[in-house]
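Protein entry
_____________
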Amino acid sequence: MHRQYERILDRYRELQEELNQPGVTGDPARYQAVVRELAELEERVSAWQDYRRAQDARREAEEMLSDPEMAELAKQELQRLSAELPAREQHLRHLLLPPDPSANRNVILEIRAGAGGEESALFSADLYRMYDHYAARHGWKLSPISASPTELGGYKEIVCSVTGQGVWAGFRFESGVHRVQRVPVTESSGRKQTSTCTVAVLPEAEPVELEIAPGDLRIDTYRASGAGGQYVNRTDSAVRITHLPTGMVVTCQDEKSQLRNREQAMRVLRARLLQAQRQQAADAQAENRRAQVGSGDRSERIRTYNFHESRVTDHRIGLTLFRIQEIMDGDLDEIVEALRLADEEARWQALAAES
C-alpha cells in the first residue's frame, strides 16, 4: 500500500507542476484533462497525507514517553492514535479498490421457492417481508413486478424492483441459496424441516446499455390469472416476453395495463441479460481470482435461518447471530456490513497480489 500511495503522490505532484506550464494553460483540452485527473486523485492524496501525519504523531508520542513530565499526555495521545490508525488504513485500502460499476444502480430482486414444497413457498414470503422491511428502514422503495402466490400465502416466485440511493450496496450480497430450519405450519406432527429458497439480486440495466433488437423478442399477451381484482380474466393484459437468442422468458401480469406489464417485463429482462453478460466476462477473465464473498452463485448455500435456536448463520464469513426475529423483521445491517468488510478485504488481497 505504501508504494502505491507514493506513486499516486508522485503523480499528483507532476500534475500540479504541469498545470502551471504555459503549454498546458494555453491548451484548454489538456488543461481540463489535468484538472480532472487532479480532482480524481485529491481524496486519496489527502487521506494518505493525513495517515502519514498520524503516523508521525504516534512516533513523537512514543519518544515523549521517556519524559516524566510528558509521559501521561503521551500515553493518552498514543491511546487515541492507536484506535484511529487502523480505521485510517482501512479507508486507504478502500480508496485503492476499483469502483463498483453497479454502485449507483437500482436492483431487480427475485425470490424463488426451492426444496421443501409449500414450506419453501411460505419461506419465500417471509424473505420477501424481510427485504421489504429492510428496504423501508433505509428509505428504499420495494415494488413487486410479478408474483406466483400459493393458496397458503406463500410464493413460488416473486420478482421485485428496489429503488433508492445505495440499494445495490445493501442487497448485493443476498444472492444465493437461503436455508430455513423450523417446524412448518403444514407439519401436524411437529417435526422440524429443512427447506430452501433461491434469491437473485440483479443490477438494473439502463435501456441504452443493452441493444435488444425487436426481432430477438417474441411477445405474447394473455389473460391474467389469480388475485388481481376486476381486470383479471377480462382483458389480455398479461405479457410474456421471450428473448429468442438466449431463451430467457419473463412474464408480468400484476399491472392493469398491458403496456405497463410490458415495461416491467423488459426491466427484468434487461437486468437478467446484463447479469449474464457480466458473468460471462467474469468467467472468461477472472476465474481464478473470483471474490470469496458474494460470488452470486445461486447453487451455493449462503445463509441458514434456524428458528428453533433463534439463530442466523452466514456461511460465507462464519457469522452467527442469535436474534432471528429482529433479522426477519429487516434488521440486516450487521450482516451486510460484515459481508462488505470481508468482500473488501478479499478484493484488497487480490489487488495487493497483482501489484
User: Anything to note?
Assistant: The first strand starts at residue 107 and ends at 113. The chain has a mean pLDDT of 86. Residues 2-96 form one domain. Residues 44 and 95 are 6 Å apart (CA to CA).
